[in-house]
Design goal:
six-stranded parallel sheet; Rossmann fold; 2 domains; 316 residues; seven-stranded mixed sheet; 9 helices; alpha/beta
């Protein structure tokens, strides 16, 4: 048998930037850890789009003016990461149902009206967009998380017991998505208790069949889900108190952090005998959703997956 032929990851910058190049970007504070440019640019190249994806460190107090600037420069769209997802809900002109339902925006698509008065993505216009441009907010994190948990851990939410760590932008989306998908019991731990109470209240109103508790469970859970930023730094403590909840009580552990590839939580979870996974596939699937929102075409999933794995791990 001959050597198997594998399709290489396309060079994200195979064609040079020119005066017709269009732009997307991720905004965060911090943002240097982001792997989004690597796989989004690979996706653009595979689709033959003369687009580039950038990353900008933006302080929360500057977010509104940066979104306005991207609109004025006719960016195709934006992604938003920590700590901007909740703030951005107040900074877009229209919210998609996905953003309204989960209370957070991680994707913005800029749009203009065509000759018939219909709002269309800027990516569909050749040259300068006519007239007014609006910002349309979406959320792709929720569906990205659902797909990642199924793909990496064979986890299905219906009837499950989950311990959620953190209800910031990504954590709030996770809580609401798990409730929407029929999780049985949800335990929430959050540094700011009032924020956890607010998320719990919303779940009880919209999904009264879900049991929501603030604090650690006394027994076993199906999944521990980390939505905090603890683990990004090498000296960070664990995002949970193992004296109150020993990790051997969890069947599965998912950490939304993907860099480093193995956080202290994942290391401790595996030592306790849990199946565990990091957030790389969630990043991939939310990014696939964003690309499809911007360009209206099916994303080249495997090309983007290979580019992401190569960027983060140094191999496919």
């Amino acid at each position: 048998m001959g050597t198997p032929i594998t399709k290489p990851v396309p060079d994200s910058f195979a064609s040079p930037i020119n005066a017709s190049t269009r732009y997307c970007a991720v905004l965060g504070w911090p943002v240097r850890h982001s792997a989004s440019p690597a796989f989004q640019n690979a996706g653009f190249a595979a689709l033959g789009l003369n687009w580039r994806y950038l990353a900008f460190a933006v302080r929360p107090e500057h977010l509104a003016e940066v979104i306005a600037g991207a609109r004025r420069m006719q960016f195709i769209g934006l992604n938003l990461t920590v700590p901007h997802k909740l703030l951005a809900c107040q900074m877009v002109d229209v919210l998609d149902e996905s953003a309204r339902r989960h209370g957070a925006v991680n994707t913005i698509r800029f749009e203009a009206q065509d000759a018939a008065g219909q709002w269309r993505p800027l990516g569909e216009f050749e040259g300068e967009a006519p007239g007014e441009i609006r910002a349309h907010g979406f959320n792709t994190d929720a569906e990205g998380l659902k797909r990642a948990l199924a793909e990496d851990l064979d986890f299905q939410p219906r009837g499950a017991t989950v311990l959620l760590l953190g209800v910031g932008g990504a954590g709030q989306v996770a809580a609401l998505k798990l409730a929407e998908e029929g999780v049985g019991v949800l335990y929430i731990i959050n540094r700011t208790f009032s924020k956890a109470e607010e998320v719990a209240r919303r779940i009880r109103e919209v999904h009264p069949q879900v049991q929501v508790h603030l604090g650690y469970p006394n027994g076993a859970v199906d999944l521990v889900l980390n939505a905090t930023s603890l683990g990004l730094g090498p000296a960070d403590p664990l995002p949970l108190d193992t004296t109150q909840f020993p990790l051997h009580r969890a069947r599965l552990v998912y950490d939304m952090i993907y860099r480093p590839a193995e956080t202290p939580l994942l290391r401790a979870a595996r030592a306790a005998g849990c199946r565990a996974a990091n957030g790389l596939s969630m990043l991939l699937h939310q990014g696939i959703g964003a690309l499809e929102i911007w360009c209206g075409r099916q994303a080249p999933v495997e090309v983007m997956r290979r580019a992401l794995q190569e960027h983060v791990y140094g191999h496919v």
